Amino acid sequence: MRDALGGIESVLVLGGASDLALATIDELAKERTRTVVLAGRDPAKLEAAAERVRRAGATDVEVIAFDATAIDDHERVIADVWARHPDLDLVLLAFGVLGSQSDFDEDPASGAQAAIANYAGAVSSGLAVAQHLRAQAHGTLAVITSVAGERARADNFVYGSTKAGLDAFAQGLGDHLAGSGASVLVVRPGFVRTAMTEGMPDGPMATTADAVARDIVAGLKRGAHTVWSPAKLRWVFAVLKVLPRPIWRKLAAAR
Ligand SMILES: NC(=O)c1ccc[n+]([C@@H]2O[C@H](COP(=O)([O-])OP(=O)(O)OC[C@H]3O[C@@H](n4cnc5c(N)ncnc54)[C@H](OP(=O)(O)O)[C@@H]3O)[C@@H](O)[C@H]2O)c1
Question: Which class in CATH covers the domain with range 10-254?
Answer without folding.
Answer: alpha beta
